[in-house]
Amino acid sequence: MSDITWEENVDVQPYNTFNVPSTARWLVRVQNISNLYELVNSTRFHNTRHLILGGGSNILFSNAQFDGIILKNEIQGIKIQSEDDKHVTLRVGGGVEWASLVDYCVQNDLGGIENLSLIPGTVGAAPIQNIGAYGAELSDVLVAVEAFDLDSGQVRTIPKDECELKYRGSIFKETLKSVMICAVIIKVVKARFYSVNTDYGLIQDVLLELGVSTPTIRSLSGAICLLRRRRLPDPKSIGNAGSFFKNVVCDESIRHSIECVDTNTPFYHKPDGTSVIPAAWLIEKCGWKGRQFDNVGVSSRHALVLVNLGRAEGCEIAWLAELIMRDVQARLGLLLTPEVNIIR
Ligand SMILES: Cc1cc2nc3c(=O)[nH]c(=O)nc-3n(C[C@H](O)[C@H](O)[C@H](O)COP(=O)(O)OP(=O)(O)OC[C@H]3O[C@@H](n4cnc5c(N)ncnc54)[C@H](O)[C@@H]3O)c2cc1C
Hints:
Number of strands: 21
Structural class: alpha+beta
CATH architecture of the largest domain: 2-Layer Sandwich
Bound molecules: flavin-adenine dinucleotide
Distance between the termini: 34 Å
Helix content: 25-40%
Largest sheet: 6 strands, antiparallel
Number of domains: 3
CATH topology of the largest domain: Uridine Diphospho-n-acetylenolpyruvylglucosamine Reductase, domain 3
Radius of gyration: 21 Å
CATH class of the largest domain: Alpha Beta
Strand content: 25-35%
């Protein structure tokens, strides 16, 4: 007897935070590894393109139809894999909401991911772009991922060192696209051995505002949630996928040429000699922040966030992104790269 259900012509509007309409030819909910074995042994799977979907918070369906199979990751479970005096190692199902994992850690006084509070999406997608915010990244706590290779039908454990995690990227975004991450293993630290990371400027301002002089894992998480709610539009009220573009990493020659255009360009220098220019600054400089066109626009709160003003189709958001990229390149000579995965 079959354990998987092939849902046909599924409306995926509720499954993407841009809230754009699109229909998937097929959708299969993956709740365990057995579902994946059954899936890869089906003829339909081999004859049809597929897309792995978590919470749909970093994806843009740019067409009215996705003529393929969506594998929706719904693998649950947070389990303690091992524990010593200082650390707890957790094995977390790929379909668990990232925010629930953060809550679990905060409630249990485990430090390491509180700076990543309130990032939408699933745990299985977190390694794909090595999620990061407020001075922390998944790579700070990741031990390994358990992945199902959809080509070979094998389960593999991939240690962190082989995940090639970097700023908004990993091996899963570049060369190893055939795997579905089914579980993620992270190592977090017990509160009494942990020092919270409040280095990121804005955090200190909010802690001060909240009257917190000795931040704990819990109060820091609360401060980050407050900061995020203020800075980013909530996808439940206005469709968006967070930052649409990546910050621009540049070498010295590029840095020099942009400084010739504007001596006030902000740079963050990295230990490897490269510099990062905030993409939000470039977009704002070109006058895009807050602009609106029919159904789409650039958030007035944050220039990196493209928004669905209500009835947008995916192609309209893709069009706006393209327009911004061309304009920034023409005016400032820098090519923006989308952080959001555009599905064509
Ligand atoms: C309001 C808002 C704020 C955000 N803030 C941040 C932030 O601060 N930092 C940050 O890094 N990101 C941020 N994001 C982006 C997004 O939340 C993250 O990238 C998140 O990890 C995406 O998870 P998801 O489950 O929604 O992935 P999806 O959007 O469903 O998928 C994203 C990509 O990963 C692939 N994928 C998904 N799951 C798996 C899996 N199990 N195995 C293999 N491939 C998979 C998909 O095919 C797709 O290519 C934000 C988004 C929003 C809407």
